[in-house]
């Protein structure tokens, strides 16, 4: 044991009670390129260039929207097709995700804040589990993270 952790003449302590509190926190915003790169680095230690390459490949396969965006919002039109396909998308995630409600939220659906390109989201093309499994691991991780963040908006 290191000297800094040794207490001389230590006294017994008494725990009088434990409190559990449920706290609500806002779901994360949808991804722009930089926020997705940051999240992938934190979670999977992927570099920005590795993440961009993975997103670009998913875009070329028509599985994710345009990658070079600085916007974290989508329009009502994108929300509608994502909501319609949500059960199919959720069939692809490795761990179940609970849905509370499916309604647009101004935190991520705001057509006025969408300029050239909206947030990075899944496209109308819903891949099969086999297609996802055939992708390189980093692409699978990117797709899963984008899908999970969108599903937490509900």
TrEMBL record:
The keyword Isomerase applies. Keywords: Isomerase. GO terms for molecular function: DNA binding; DNA topoisomerase type I (single strand cut, ATP-independent) activity. Its EC number is 5.99.1.2. Residues 1-154 form the Topo IA-type catalytic domain. One of its GO terms (biological process) is DNA topological change. SUPFAM superfamilies: Prokaryotic type I DNA topoisomerase. PANTHER family: DNA TOPOISOMERASE 3-ALPHA, PROKARYOTIC DNA TOPOISOMERASE. This is DNA topoisomerase. It comes from Lactiplantibacillus plantarum (Lactobacillus plantarum).
């Amino acid at each position: 044991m290191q000297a800094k952790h040794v207490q001389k003449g230590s006294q017994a302590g008494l725990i009088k009670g434990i409190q559990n509190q449920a706290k609500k926190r806002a779901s994360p915003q949808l991804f722009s390129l930089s926020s997705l790169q940051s999240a992938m680095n934190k979670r999977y230690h992927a570099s920005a260039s590795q993440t961009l390459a993975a997103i670009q490949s998913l875009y070329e396969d028509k599985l994710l929207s345009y990658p070079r965006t600085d916007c974290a919002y989508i329009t009502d039109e994108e929300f509608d097709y994502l909501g319609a396909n949500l059960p199919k998308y959720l069939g692809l995630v490795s761990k179940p995700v609970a849905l509370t409600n499916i309604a647009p939220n101004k935190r991520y659906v705001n057509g006025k804040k969408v300029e050239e390109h909206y947030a990075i989201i899944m496209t109308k093309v819903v891949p099969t589990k086999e297609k996802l499994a055939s992708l390189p691991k980093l692409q699978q991780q990117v797709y899963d993270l984008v899908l999970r963040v969108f599903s937490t908006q509900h």
